[in-house]
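Appendix B. Extra example for self-study. Work through it before the problem class; the solution is given directly after the inputs so you can check yourself.
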Amino acid sequence: MELDAISQPELEQLERIANADLAIGILDGVCQAEGSNALAVTREALMELSQPRAPLRVMVVCNNGTHGPTSPESEVPGDNHTTPAVSFCSLPLPGPGETPQQTISNVYRRVFAVGGKLGVRACAVIASRPQTVTRGWIHRLVHPVVDLGFDLVTPCYTRNKMEGLLNRSILSPLHRALYGQQVQNPMGPDFGLSGKLLQQVLGQDPVRRRVERNALALLASAAACGGFQVCESHLGVRTQRPTDWENLSSLLAEILGSTFLEMEERAVHWQSIRGSKPLPGFGLPDAPSPDASTVDVHGMIESFQLGTQNLQDIWSLVLPPTTLLELRRLARLPQDQFRLPDPLWVRIVYDFALGHRLRTISRDHLLRSLTPLYLGWIASYSLEMQTAGLAEVDSRTERLSKAYEDNKSYLVSRWRWPDRFNP
Amino acid sequence: MWDEVEQALNQSMTRMLSQIASLLPGILALMTALLVSAVVAWALSAILRRSLTRFDFDRRVAQGGFPALAEWSPSSSPTILVTRAIAAIVMFIGFLIGISAFDGTLPSQFVIRLFAYLPNVMAAIVVLVVGSIGARFLARSVLIGAVNMNLQYARLLSVGAKWLVTVLAVTIAIEQLGIGGGIIRLAFGILFGGIVLALALAVGLGSKELVSRSLERETSKASASNMREPVGHL
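Solution. C-alpha cells for the complete assembly:
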C-alpha cells in the first residue's frame, strides 16, 4: 500500500516537501460542485479548525480537473496563522474496466501512500459523488481527529429507507456483531483517520496486504481491533450512484469478498467480543426528504424463486439443510406474505462467510450466488417498510442488528468446528 | 502301412501330451500367481479402505474441489474407486508374473508395448480431469450468471455448457487413445453441433424476455432520468 502507489517524479517532489500535517483526498472535483477548486475548498474547510502556532501544512490529493502524472505543486503558504499552506498532488487516471469501488480503493491507497511519506497527523478522503459534498464534509471528517484526538471518523449519511441497503442488511450489523461497535457505514466511503491509525494500516505485514484490494474494508476493523478511538460524523445527504442491477452480483462479490477476507484475518479478535456499544457522534442528523418512491418487488421475489429452484446444489455446499428447507418454504409464499425472517437471513450471511473461509467452492461463485437471497431480503424489507416512517425504519434496522448479535454464537461455533457443528 | 499310421499317431499323441504336460506347470504357476495376487489385492485394498475411511477421504476429496470424482466412483465413494483401482493394478501385475511362467519373451513384449502406450493413456487422463473440472466450473458460472440475469432457462444453459466441454474432453481423450478413429470424429461433430444448436435455440427463444426487459429499462431510464433511484446498496 505504500510507495508503489506513487510515481518516481512525485516521490522526489514529496521528498522535497518533506512533511505535512494533513493529507486530504478528494475523488471527484468537489471543486466543480462549489464553483471553486479543491485547494481553495480545502483551505476554507480547514480555516475553522482550532489553530496551532504555525499554519497547517496540507497536501490535497485530487484530480482537480486533470488526472495524470503532474508532480506535486505547492501554493503560496498562508500569510498568517489561520491560513493553511496547501499543496497539491494528482490522482491516477481510473483504469479501463475499473469498478467504482476499485477507483475509491485506489484513491485511498494513494492518499495513504502520500500521507505515510509525509508523516501526516491526520488524513481524510472524500469519495462520495460531488453534487452533495460541501466543505463542511472535510471539516467534519478532520475536526474530530485533529482537535479531539479520535483516530477514525466514520460517516453517517441522511438516507431514505431504501438507500444503503447492503449496509443495512449486512455490512453495518455484521461489523457491529463482530467488533462490538455500532458503525452505520463501516465501508465509508468517506473517512477521516489519524496518523497513528494510518501508520498501523501502512505497517501491516505482507500477508495482510492482500486485503489491500479494497482499502475501505480494513479501516473500521483495524481501528476496532487495534483499540483506536472511533467516532461518527453526520455528513448529510449523499447522492446515490444509480443502481446497476445487471452488475449487482459483481458489487456483492467485491464488497463482501473484502469484508469476509477481513473477517477471516481478524477471527482471533472478534470471537471473544460480545454485545456492542454506540459510538460518539458529531454533527446533527438531517431529516431525509419525503420518500414517495415505490419499489417493484415482483422482480426481486421472482429472482429469489428462480435462485431457490436452480441454486440449491450450490447453496447446499454452504447452507445447512434446515436453512434450505426454510428457503424452499419461503419461495412458495404469495408475494404479500413474503417475509425473510431476521434469524434466517443472519444465519445465511454467517454461513456464506464460513463458506468463503473454507473455500468450499470458488469464492467468486459463492458470493455471486448470494444475489437472489439478497434480492429476497430487499423484497421482504421493502414489503415490511412500505408505509413505515423514519422511526420504524430505525427500529427495524436495530432489530436486525440485534439478530446478528444474538446469532453470533452460531457463527463462532461453526467457525471453530465447521464439521462438528452443522445444524 | 497300418503300422506306419499307428506309429505316426502314437508319435503325434506323445508330442501333444508332452506339450500339454510342459504347459501344466505354467498354467499352475499362472493360477497360483493370480490366486496370490488376488489375496494380496484383497488385503491391500482392505487396509487402504480402512485407512482412507479413517482419513475421511470422501469428504476431503469433495471439499478439495473434486466432487466429480464422487460422481464417477462406484457407490459415489472415491475411497472405493481408489481401493478397486489398486486391487486391479495388483491383479494385473500378478497376471504378468503368471504369463511370464509360460514364455519369458511374451510379457516383456507386452510390457514394452504397454509402456509405449502409457503416454497416450496419461494424456487422456489429464484431458479428462481438466475437462471435468473445466466443465463443472463453467457450468456453475453459467448457472449463477443466468439466474442473476433472471433467465428462466438457466439450468438448461448450464447443462448445455457442461456437456459441450465434457463431450470435447472425452473426444480428445478417445482420440489420444487411438480408439474409434473416424466414427468418433463423426459422432463428436454430430453431438457438438446438436448441443450448440439446442443452446442457440434456447438462448434465441429465451433472450426475447431479456431484450424486452433491457428495452423497458432503457425506456424507463430515459423517461425518468431526473428521478431519484429508489434503491441504493451502499
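Self-check: Chain A has a mean pLDDT of 81. If your reasoning did not lead you there, revisit section 3.
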